[in-house]
Amino acid sequence: MGIVQSQSIKNTIFTFVGFGIGAINTLFFYTNFLGKLHYGIVMTILSGANILMPIMAFGAQNTLIRFFSSYKEQKKRDEFLTFMLLLPLALIIPVGLAFYIFYDQISHSWIQENPTLKPFFWLIPVIGLFMAYFEVFYAWAKVHMKSVTGNFISEILVRSIIMVLLLGVHFKWLSTDTFVYCVALAYLAQVIAMKLYAISVKMPVLRFVIPENVREIIYYSLFIIVSGGVAVMLVDFDKVMIPQYKEIGQNAIYGLAIFIATVIAAPSRAMTQITAPITAKLMVENKHEELNDLYKKSAITLQVVGGFIMIVIFVNIKEMYHLIPKDYSGGVLAVFLIGISKFYDVLLGNNNSIIVNTHYYRTVLLFGVFTVFLMIVLNMIFIPLYGINGSAFATLLTVAIYNTIKLIFVVKKLDLYPFTNKTLQSLAILAVCFLLFYFWDFPFYTIINIILKSILVSLLYVFLNYKLQISEEVNGVIANVLKKLRLM
Question: How far is residue 324's CA from residue 446's CA, in Å, rounded to a whole number?
Fold first, then answer.
């Protein structure tokens, strides 16, 4: 896979380092230094900002990737970039004004249930703005096939700053209230760093000219707002709804479970950074066979890598919860439910990149709107009944339905299929590893138990995948490691 494999490996490394920092923050620093109340507030603010981000970005991050390859002249590309940098302002300004004018009405239902959220609620659109322009500048780097540094900024820089801030709370340099405000500064640092890198990759030449295909660009951007909103809502809307029905501390418990489960999707996030522009290029050039090959390779590679992470988490989840304060117990079932939904995302490879780059995207939009409606209804039903586990179950049902619709759509309309007989073999390996190790506990200290079980399940999982040659790309990486260790 060439550049895909090279940058995906680097992105994966940075993503996992970032998740490692995030794991320290989430499992230990947040839970021990900040407390459930302020942790829940941070989760609610960041989830709200994530939901606003696609709107405030006006879809520019995906539109830039979608149309960049279609411009052959540098002058046209400069005009297009300038337009993309200004386009988000068309929604940022009215959204910001609406939030300011109708602040009390917008925040009422959340603050009524959790009044401690009131001083911080205004941070939601501010952080959403920072996130939006980060994605725009990151997209500019991606179209030049430079995704690694942006991934470092996204995955490591922000988490490192937050780690320092949490240590500041621990050593009494910052109050818990001040910490929440400083989280916004971490995202400001993120967007500034991304902007500086983007202009170092290719200094933009500002040309204030409306592109000839402006109607197509705007139409596509509007689609991205809705489709991107659907994707974000499937991830974050449950964390926004929980404080409307339960005390905000429950969001801290749920956020912890979500973080653990989200690690499963880390390889997908890393690979997407480089497969997205390549997918767009192949579709513009109408290279169906190459696209189908990329689809299959990305799906099975992500299944093997994501499945490995999932099985390590699942067989160790009970021990993991022994390491955190008891106030955060009760999230094990949520980890399983959210984890399975994340694994389904992983199974589909670069499915999303294919859909957003096809002229059929308008039809999929209708499915997305239906899915959001379904998710809201399911959360309204299950959160009052079962709390965070009800929200996790609602998310699993919603994601399963939405992903199945997208899969069928790509297969039927584009004649692209991600699965092979290796898919079933990989699922069988996962089932064997889970049944062998989930019910097997060592009578040692918790951390030792986790280490021993992780080593054993890793050896078996890697051995079976390597011998059965499930993924060429994964086998290639394993072979290179073995050669460096002089074991081959």
Answer: 11
Euclidean distance between CA atoms 103 and 121, whole angstroms: 9
Give the chain's radius of gyration (CA, Å): 22
CA distances from 6 to 9, 13, 272, 291, 358 (A): 5, 11, 13, 18, 26
- Closest alpha carbon to 14 in 308, 366, 270, 253: 270
Cβ atoms of 181 and 122 within 8 Å: the answer is no
CA gap 188, 127 in Å, rounded:
8
DSSP at 325: -
| CA distances for 456 relative to 79, 101, 450, angstroms | 56, 58, 10
Q: Would you call 286 helix, strand, or coil by DSSP? A: coil
Contact criterion met (CB below 8 Å) for 351 and 58: no
What are the structure tokens assigned to 130, written together?
Answer: 């920072």
Q: How far apart are the C-alpha atoms of 487 and 473, rounded to whole Å?
A: 19
The angle at the Cα of 414, spanning 409 to 419, to the nearest 5 degrees, equals: 75
- Whether the Cβ atoms of residue 272 and residue 5 lie closer than 8 Å to each other: no
pLDDT score of 59: 78
The CA-atom distances, in angstroms, between 431 and each of 307, 314, 385, 438 are: 10, 11, 31, 10
What is the per-residue pLDDT across 196-253, written as a single tens digit (0 to 9) for each?
Answer: 988 887 777 777 778 777 788 888 888 777 777 777 777 777 887 888 788 887 888 8
Residue indicated by tokens 């337009």: 83
Q: Let me know: does 455 contact 315? Beta carbons within 8 Å.
A: no
Phi and psi (nearest 5°) for 375? -60, -45
Give me the DSSP letters along 276-334: HHHHHHHHHTT-HHHHHHHHHHHHHHHHHHHHHHHHHHHHHHHHHTTSS-GGG-S-HHH
Tokens of 140: 């500019």
The span from the CA of 475 to the CA of 304, in Å, is 10
The contacts of residue 236 (CB under 8 Å, 6+ apart) are 46, 47, 48, 50, 51
pLDDT at 1: 47
Which one-letter DSSP state was computed for residue 161? H
The parts of the chain modelled with pLDDT lower than 70 are: 1-12, 69, 109, 147, 269-274, 360-365, 486-488
The owner of tokens 């390859």 is 69
Helices 123-142 & 74-86 angle (0-180, nearest 10): 170
Contact 186, 131 (CB under 8 A): no
d(CA 134, CA 147): 13
Eight-class DSSP state of 264: G
